[in-house]
Each structure stands twice: as structure tokens, then as C-alpha cells.
Amino acid sequence: MTKITVTKANGAKQAFERLKIVRTCLRMGASEKMSEAVADEVEKQVFNGIKTSKILQMIFDELGKRNRSFKYRICLRRSLSLMKPKPDFERFIQIVLKEHGYDVTPNQIIQGKWIDHEINAIVRRNDQAPS
Predict the structure, then answer these.
(1) φ/ψ (deg, to 5) at 33
(2) Could you read off the pLDDT tens digit of each residue along the chain, which spans 131 residues?
(3) For residue 14, which phi and psi values (nearest 5 degrees)?
(4) Which of 53, 83, 119, 126 is an S-S bond match for 88, by CB 3.0 to 4.6 Å?
(5) Which pTM value belongs to this model?
(6) How many C-beta atoms lie closer than 10 Å to residue 105's C-beta?
């Protein structure tokens, strides 16, 4: 059998490894059985020189076909990656924490020993900081 090589994001070539597909699926919460099925399907479609980003898209598509909840996780992941670190992501995290019962005090200046420190948020639950 001819060895298939994949092209990484940095342009480097490496051998195709089916196990990486299985591990990606498992990390996303797929069962062992589903991960193997996705790897089988993706392996049928790969070709020499395929970009790893294309393989990842194939994995996402296959997971989404098997269980709709994966489509939502992928959309959330993409959406989060498009957020600007400041202020969008910071505000998003503050909202999530507040929804989970924490008191959130955003954008604080805290007196340090030598200088003032800008803190994105102070988070407490029942007068205790999260552990």
C-alpha cells in the first residue's frame, strides 16, 4: 500500500495517521465506536498531499452526520475562535460565570504593593472566590 502524506498548516509533510482521527473524535466526546467509524470514512477520502485542515473539516462533517450535537459544538468552537480577546471574550466569560451563579464585578483596578493592577473581573460565589 502506498503511504499517504498530509500537508500540515506550516507546509510540512508527514505520514497520514488514522489514529490521530480517532483521538480527535474521542477528544470531542465521541464514543470509541463512533470514532472508529468516522476514521474509517475519512480514511476512504484522504489523498496524497491533503491538508490537515481539510481532514479536520471531514472529521467535523462526519461527526455531525452521526450526531447533531457535534454540529453545535463545532459551531460554538468556531464562534469562540472568532471573538476578539478583548473585550468580546472577556465579556462572554463574565456572562457564563454569572449564569452559573457567580457574582461578577467586571473591570476592576486593584491596589498592588508597588503598582495598580487592572483586573478583567472579580468572581465570587457566596463570598468565596472559585477554586
Answers:
(1) -65, -45
(2) 568 999 998 999 999 999 999 999 999 899 999 999 999 999 999 999 999 999 999 999 999 899 888 877 777 777 777 777 778 888 888 888 888 889 888 888 989 899 999 888 888 887 665 55
(3) -150, 160
(4) 83
(5) 0.60
(6) 11
